[in-house]
Design a protein that fits this description.
Distance between the termini: 41 Å
Mean pLDDT: 86
Helix content: 10-25%
Order of helices and strands: HHEEEEEEEEHEEEEEH
Strand order of the largest sheet: 2-3-4-5-6-7-8-9-10-11-12-13
Shape: globular
Number of helices: 4
Number of strands: 13
CATH class: Mainly Beta
Strand content: over 45%
CATH architecture: Beta Barrel
Largest sheet: 12 strands, antiparallel, barrel
Length: 296
């Protein structure tokens, strides 16, 4: 079933993102850069009040159970809320006289046990990802393997869940990221190299088996709808997220997200996830249609 869903989704994505739309995206992006102290959308922001996981990773939370808490029931219920806030800001133009601009970025992902009254509705897991990167936006695209590379980044990211001891997960990475148009596909690809840690301090030494050395994202606009695919190609286990959004009102979109497999967050990176969520997302300059970009 997963292969059938993935095949269908990629066929839809492959139809996708006309060059004229991206010219408008680039124009809007450059316009925003001329405004000081603006928070730019980065990896997407959304709120899923209903997020259901059919296969919760309950075992990892066994450390929380003792004679005083055992009667409270499960710490990880199937249903919870999920949200992500992601933004970046320009901190330097024409870095060292080059065509690169310097950015600081931040992405906050949270899984909130909103319906778990017995445990006081805790934030079960939060992933914090500050990053710094240099970006070059290409006025004249590069032709690579039949596609058009429109921008690329070089940077460093720290990702952690802010926990201690048995629940702690974190890693640091250098990365190279680029955005390209392949026919009508808008693709963002990232490759990374983990910064080595001492073995006695490494919370997750096998994380590349599940989160690999990069990820791929595809987007497709079809009329007002947007389809998205994120692939996490671990070296031994893989994960995938599929998403669909549709305009609701100005600045907001209905949003559905499905996740299956491994590496979709830090605490569950080595546990198979099977989840679906419903909610809203913020419109960004990629998911906006041509009319939205022009303000018509």
């Amino acid at each position: 079933m997963l292969k059938i869903c993935l095949l269908f989704h990629l066929v839809v994505v492959l139809k996708a993102f006309p060059d004229t739309n991206f010219d408008l995206v680039r124009k809007e992006y450059n316009s925003i850069l001329n405004k000081p102290y603006v928070l730019l959308p980065h990896k997407g922001s959304y709120l899923l009040p209903i997020s259901y996981n059919s296969n919760p990773n309950e075992d990892v939370y066994n450390v929380l159970y003792n004679e005083n808490t055992r009667g409270r029931g499960d710490y990880y219920l199937h249903s919870e809320a999920e949200f992500q806030i992601s933004f970046m800001t320009l901190t330097g133009r024409r870095l060292f006289g080059t065509e690169f601009n310097l950015f600081l970025g931040y992405t906050h992902e949270a899984w909130w046990q909103l319906y778990n009254e017995e445990w006081s509705r805790p934030f079960r897991e939060s992933n914090y990802s500050p990053e710094i990167f240099a970006r070059r936006m290409l006025e004249n695209t590069w032709e690579v393997l039949g596609g058009k590379v429109v921008a690329y980044d070089v940077g460093f990211v720290h990702q952690s869940n802010g926990q201690t001891q048995e629940l702690s997960r974190s890693w640091n990475r250098w990365f190279f990221r680029f955005a390209a148009l392949y026919g009508e596909i808008f693709m963002r690809a990232t490759v990374w190299s983990r910064v080595p840690e001492e073995s006695d301090r490494d919370d997750n030494p096998d994380i590349t088996k599940y989160m690999g050395y990069g990820e791929l994202k595809f987007d497709r606009l079809f009329s007002k709808a947007r389809f998205g695919t994120r692939i996490v190609p671990g070296t031994e286990k893989q994960g995938i997220e599929l998403s669909y959004s549709y305009p609701w009102q100005e600045g907001l979109r209905y949003y559905i997200k499905l996740g299956y497999g491994y590496g979709l967050n830090l605490i569950d990176y080595n546990h198979k996830t099977e989840r679906i969520g419903f909610g809203i997302s913020l419109t960004d300059i990629v998911s906006a249609s041509s009319k939205e970009l022009l303000g018509n």
